[in-house]
Design a protein that fits this description.
Blueprint (H helix, E strand, L loop, with lengths): L2 E6 L19 H17 L4 E7 L3 H10 L2 E3 L7 H15 L5 E4 L8 H11 L4 E5 L6 E6 L13 H7 L3 E2 L6 H4 L5 H10 L3 H7 L8
Parallel strand pairs: 1-2, 1-4, 2-3, 5-7
Antiparallel strand pairs: 4-6, 5-6
Helix pairs in contact: 1-2, 1-8
Length: about 210
């Protein structure tokens, strides 16, 4: 099964505010873009992925991610993450009505293509499934098979909300790179320990991170 991934990305100037203890205001937009670039690069290298659609209105991100091969979908709702994902899913389905879809976080800089393939292959067994994040509170991936609605419920306590909505929780070992999103300095250190992509490595090198 070949998947289309929908990746939402808010304006870079507003991204990653919880990294304030690790990265200065001037550095956070560059970090957010680096995370997204490494995520998209890894996703497009995944054997289970047909294509990637990024939902964003950020001018810099649109140019950078399109250059990597992502399709850009304007964030026309502009009313938050879940609205952006629903809009992206509708845009993808208008072109590929029979495509399986997966919403994927844009902040997975350690993402490994083969681990993502394992998650998507497992998700294909269920009409709607999700993968919890490394903190076991949030969600990094929500997948639906053809003919099913995405019904995203990302945000605070999204693991519980996706489970309550009827999505099957994927319980997989050895897919740490698909779970490790980056919201805090601690998350960034964990991602660096897993091994991040080159753009994140270069951006993180400009930071003074204890323990690195």
């Amino acid at each position: 099964m070949q998947w289309t991934l929908v990746i939402p990305l808010k304006p870079l100037a507003l991204a990653k505010s919880r990294l304030a203890d690790t990265a200065a205001d001037a550095l956070r937009p560059g970090l957010a873009l680096a995370f997204a670039e490494d995520t998209v690069t890894a996703a497009l290298s995944c054997p289970a992925v047909r294509d990637v659609a990024v939902v964003t209105d950020d001018v810099l991100a649109k140019a950078a991610l399109a250059a990597l091969g992502a399709r850009i979908v304007p964030d026309e709702p502009r009313t938050g993450l879940n609205a952006a994902l629903a809009h992206g899913a509708t845009a993808v389905r208008s072109l590929r009505p029979d495509s399986p879809l997966a919403a994927l976080n844009a902040d997975l800089p350690a993402l490994r293509p083969l681990e993502l393939a394992r998650v998507l292959d497992a998700a294909a067994e269920f009409p709607r499934a999700f993968l919890p994040d490394a903190a076991a509170i949030g969600t990094t991936l929500l997948a639906v098979t053809p003919g099913r609605e995405l019904l995203p419920a990302f945000g605070t306590d999204s693991r519980a909300r996706h489970r309550a909505s009827g999505a099957v929780e994927l319980r997989l070992d050895a897919v740490d790179s698909v779970r490790q999103d980056v919201d805090t300095g601690e998350d960034l250190r964990a991602a660096l320990a897993l091994g991040v992509g080159p753009r994140t490595a270069a951006a993180a090198a400009r930071l003074l991170i204890p323990g690195q």
